From TrEMBL:
Protein name: Lysine 2,3-aminomutase
Domain of life, per lineage: Bacteria
Key word Iron present: yes
Keywords: 4Fe-4S, Iron, Iron-sulfur, Metal-binding
Amino acid sequence: MTDLISPELTAEALAGQPYAYHRAELVEPDWTRLPGWKDVTAEEWRSVQWQRSHCVKNVKQLRDVMGALLEDRVYADLERDQAERATMSMLLPPQMLNTIVPNADYAGTFSEAFYADPVRRYMLPMFTDRRSDWPSHPHATRDSLHEHEMWATEGLTHRYPTKVLAEILPTCPQYCGHCTRMDLVGNSTPVIDKLKFTIKPQQRLDDMLDYLRRTPGVRDVVVSGGDVANMPWPRLETFLTSLLEIENIRDIRLATKALMGMPQHWLSDDVRAGVERVASIARRRGVMVAMHTHVNAAQSVTPLVAEATKAMFEAGLRDVRNQGVLMRGVNDSVPQLLDLCFALLDGATITPYYFYMCDMIPFSEHWRVSVREAQQLQHGILGYLPGFATPRIVCDVPYVGKRWVHQLSDYDEVRGISYWKKNYRTGIEQQDPEALNRTYEYYDPIDTLPADGQGWWKQHAGDSIAKAAAQAAASRDAAESQKLLQIS
């Protein structure tokens, strides 16, 4: 029996598609190409202790690694951003820094390639990256998703009816420039004085567990922070084991960018053995334990990331999924998104799950895309990936939650205001009769709007902010009244 379609015709048809699929082999970039690591051995590189102790935390340490590869203007640009704009302090593990300009296949100078690199653009933001017209949206806030208002106990956000987010610690092995929890996570910067947990760590965890025992409507816990890889494993295992003893908990998700940023942690013998113990208990109880990671560019998926993912499956986790963030200059094209999805799926068996639109935090306008652009990107990636591995692009709407970008109720594209509704009450709206009828607003970056829209914001930004502030104050007052009623 002969093939109905010849290989030549198949190749020609693929070449004529908007996106041509090809399976790329994963490559671990050669870290010895960087002057500061020219003598680092493979054994040292695989050591989580070496990775943690050699993280880059400031411009001087970056210079020690990169040396003369980067021009002085690059270091000056970084220093100015850290002093005037950065909402997150600098912290990159060697594994992650090594994926910036990973090979010699680039045009121009190394400094030019460094500026253009997608991983650099979100992990090491420069002052010249930021917009000068609208560096922050008028409605940008430190806690853009109002998670703190929805804390059932300190660090435990109860926004969705059956799900909670447990922020078990405020640190990560690496700090992303666009971090949505920039008000709490990491060290303070010159422009952001970080909030601090006030309750002792163990008491916070105990309070979370007590709340979950008293709240049988919750079945799903996202264990996050920060990053769970920064919690000593024995303490994390104790917390997870306690979660598994609560009858109503049926899903546990471990949130860790470190699977990509520091896979050496998840390859450590003690951590692998601990994950296996937790997964064994979960299987006996019929509870699903999965891992969620955060990869934004295909070049970040290396053989070590694939090895760590395989180790998690072998230890018994049900799934490993990726939740990326959609950002200009990083992954805002169909080829970039599909290259990333196929690298995750083919190279590391990580399921592409979500791409979030970058949240409205301060100084993030150069990263954010409009809802219309997000809709076009969602359309562009359909049909190439398996259905179960086609990520949804979602907008995390303040006071609403995750919404697929096509779910908006109305859209003023001139002023860049989209309107959304929801089908549940958050933890602070149990007594609000209008919560399910009200529309909630999300805002496009102003520089993406037509001239009329940009002109409107220049004239009315103050009025719009005042109105939003009054609405937020009313919501907070209603939430406080509800808490007082519950206490009494």
